[in-house]
Amino acid sequence: MAALVDKTVLSWFMLVTIFVTFQMMNGVESGFFPKAQVGIINTLPVQLDFHCKDKTRDDGFHTLPPGQTYHFEFKIEFLFKRTQWFCQFNWYRKRQESHYFDIYVQTRDNSSNADWKITTTGACKIVNPTTGNIFCYPWNELQGRKKLLISNTTTEQESPLS
Q1: Number of domains in the chain
Q2: Integer Rg of the chain from CA
Q3: Of 92, 100, 142, 153, whose Cβ has the fewest other Cβ atoms within 10 Å?
Q4: Residues 6 or more apart from 37 whose CB is under 8 A from it?
Q5: Torsion-angle region of residue 117: left (phi > 0), alpha (psi -120 to 50) or beta?
């Protein structure tokens, strides 16, 4: 009887270990986990430059002409629900403008797809494509994230004392 209990406990322990390992794999794409797709729609009358990333993955720099759409996808965490992607948007109209926005927050977006219209005042999520209902959010402040958007490896370093 004790051997059966030990095997059951060991089996559960192994199953939980495998499950947690899959959850902790950052940057590994797998068909096992659900994916989300984000669409960025340039509603500005000028070219939109943007750079999107999360804490471990980088979608790179992109340019969208007016009226065009860009889509990208990534895996989302189904256990901890902490997936978050952010973008820096830049355009030039009379002056250079640069804004930051959390383009996908798993706890906010509640779905695997999120399409966003980029406007001068913020990003507007298309809530219902059939009716055209949108919900608009203002731009986030850049604060300390500006360096993170430049490169995954950029960190503040002090000059060595001589």
Answers
A1: 1
A2: 21
A3: 153
A4: 71, 72, 73, 112, 113, 114
A5: beta
Average pLDDT, the chain: 80
Q: Give 111-152 pLDDT, tens digit per residue.
A: 778 899 999 999 999 998 889 899 999 999 766 555 544 444
pLDDT tens profile 87-103? 999 999 889 999 999 99
Residue 141: C-alpha distances to residues 16, 28, 56, 59, 126 (Å): 39, 30, 21, 21, 22
CA end-to-end span of the chain? 70
Identify whether the C-beta of residue 12 lies closer than 8 Å to the C-beta of residue 20: no
Asked if 27 and 72 touch (Cβ cutoff 8 Å), the reply is no
Name the pairing type of β-strands 58-64 and 48-53.
antiparallel
CATH of the domain at 127: 2.60.40
Distance of CA 17 to the CA centre of its chain: 26
> Residue 128: which domain range?
35-147
- Looking at residue 121, what DSSP letter applies? S
Flag whether 13 is in a domain. Answer: no
